[in-house]
Amino acid sequence: MSDQLLQLGNPSSLHTHGRATRKTLEDAREVIAQKIDSLPSEVVFTASGTEANNIALKGLFWNGKRQGKNVVVISAIEHHAILDPAQWLQTHEGAEVITIGVTTAGVIDLAQLQEVVTNRSSEIAVISIMHSNNETGVLQPISEVVKIAGQIPVHTDAVQSFIKTPLSYKNLGVTALTISAHKIGGPLGIGALILRRAFEIPALLHGGGQEREIRSGTLNAPSIVAFATAAADEYNSVLVSQLRDSFIAGVKEIIPDAYLNGEQSIRLPGIVNITFPGTQSDTLLLLLDNANVSASTGSACSAGVHEASHVLLAMGHNEETAQSSLRFSFGATSTQADVDFVLSVLPDVITRGRAAHK
Amino acid sequence: MKLIAAMSGGVDSAVAAARAVEAGHDVIGVHLALAANPQKYRSGARGCCTIEDSHDARRAADVIGIPFYIWDMAEEFHDGVVEDFLAEYSAGRTPNPCLRCNEKIKFAAVLDRARAMGFDGVVTGHYARTQISDTGKTLHRAIDHSKDQSYVLSVLTIEQIAGAIFPLGDTTKVDIRLEAEARGLAVAQKPDSHDICFVPSGDNAGWLRDRLGSEIGPIVDQDGNKIGEHKGAYTYTIGQRKGLGLTVPTSDGSPRFVLKIEPVTNTVVVGAREDLAISTMRGERPVWCGPAVTSQEKRGFVQVRAHGAALACTYFYDETLLVATLDEPLLGLATGQAMVIYDGDRVVGSATICETE
Hints:
The structure holds two protein chains of two kinds.
Chain A: H1 2-5, H2 16-36, E1 43-46, H3 49-66, E2 71-75, H4 80-93, E3 96-100, H5 110-120, E4 124-128, H6 142-149, E5 154-157, H7 169-172, E6 176-180, E7 191-195, H8 221-232, H9 237-254, E8 259-260, E9 271-275, H10 281-290, E10 299-300, E11 306-307, H11 310-314, H12 319-322, E12 325-329, H13 336-357
Parallel strand pairs in A: 2-3, 2-4, 4-5, 5-6
Antiparallel strand pairs in A: 1-7, 6-7, 8-9, 9-12, 10-11
Helix pairs in contact in A: 2-8, 3-4, 5-6, 9-13, 10-13
Chain B: E1 2-6, H1 11-22, E2 26-33, H2 51-64, E3 68-72, H3 74-90, H4 97-116, E4 121-123, E5 128-133, E6 136-141, H5 150-153, H6 158-162, E7 164-165, H7 173-182, H8 204-212, E8 216-220, E9 226-231, E10 257-262, E11 267-271, E12 277-288, E13 298-303, E14 311-317, E15 322-331, E16 338-343, E17 346-356
Parallel strand pairs in B: 1-2, 1-4, 2-3, 4-7, 8-11
Antiparallel strand pairs in B: 5-6, 8-9, 10-11, 12-15, 12-17, 13-14, 13-16, 14-15, 16-17
Helix pairs in contact in B: 1-2, 1-7, 3-4
């Protein structure tokens, strides 16, 4: 990335410097295409996963709207980068948003999806269901979704899944798929929408016509190169899964009433979501941070106030238990020593957390 | 010590946190989200707990170099402060919500939570001082009397004072702003907040009318003769002269003042200026900030408004009520306000005024 920062050329320029940048940028595009199993021309770089999600959801909706299709189908556990554009489409573009629920195991309700598609097939502009959930790590049956969808375009937010679990754009059969660099150890602020070759979709940004005229704007070559470098790095999912399982076993031993959310489901190697009854997660987060452990809670509102996770609520939690849950993430650089350290500070954190919640 | 610094997003709490860090404490910044539906931006000196305020607090914590979190106390604030405010008004009293917030939120809910989590106390940007004396830690006025906030802290018990750190009490506000500037804190020139934080419009009467309704009732003189109508008794305050809308003049043409608010009959009683004079006040639910007041009469000062004068008095506790007799009568005193007793600069204790004569 720092090498690329020293390169002057704009990849859209015709001169030597521009060509040099275009060469490395297109090399990077090929690496990412290979990793996601798409054609290089199917990779549309964006400034974030959020932007890719917005292009996909709004673009596919507008495509459908031209054919009189007004319904947007999403799941209840989508990231805000899908929930909020869907809400926006409802408020500003007259869309009807249908939300598919999930089971207590955190997997979308395929029967409900089937029913919606059967009844409303001709009205649905787009179905967007995430590939795996960012809070619980639970993988979603996207191949089944695509089968049910038939001719309806499907988008999947695969930001959490890319590199972490086998993922083939070609085999999945979705129209569009979102990935982001910072979830795989790349830089912040670079993402991509994988969109079927020659598929036309309305743009959100208009200008120089870069990226198939879907995403105008000078390409962020240094970040794109770093994105590809991160994608090419080895990710040992077996090792990360082992760490995760060792952590879960340790927590269950120390805090017997703690429970794992999505335990019955197939999950990503690196995400663990645990409910600690009788605590409040923002208190736990503070205490863990104080002990040099970074964990996270579901989400915070714009004022920074911690809110009950919509994902856990959708899985049947009540406000209180949803507010007692924490997400721990393990990455390629995590070690057993890290796991042991967290387990060593956890008992005191939970004791204090419970006292503070009385 | 391990301390929680309550950071509102204003200049005072930011400098207080910075001073606590400099004094060698292990400090964590916490912003209290008190409004259930916060507004995005502050408008001038009104309101607080906006999203902008929480950003300012976070930025100050980052500049100081301490961790920062937001604690949601909206429910506690609503139940303990806003509901109390409404209940007091509908009972015909004039409450002070800042005092209630210190009593129930900042040095109760927050301090309790902090202690349970293993912290030793709470740092705030209040202008007040504490001292260690033979009787323990005592609460005193700030050096800057014009900014002194000991009045609104007079509801703290000895145990709460033990866990309270006020790093600003020895400095004037002017110097605090200069210090904030020197520390690179962007809030150095942020306007002070005034008024009641949960009434962002500043229109207390309108805010109360929206919530308590506006039931028309009689305005009567001291003999009970109806001489006018009011639009909701609770929007009047004792001593108020303007806005009564009375058309019947007094015999000598002298102005009338609100003497009493009777919530049960929804009546506002008015009378002459001299009828406002109060020489004795009694307060319920006393809190002692140091050694308890006894039935033995003592000389001291009583203050009845946040930035009011300290009035020379004789005071004692009759085992039920705190009683203060003034050397010079005071014009207009609302029940519901706090009477705070001072021994010089030391806060002796406080009670909620329930009777005046």
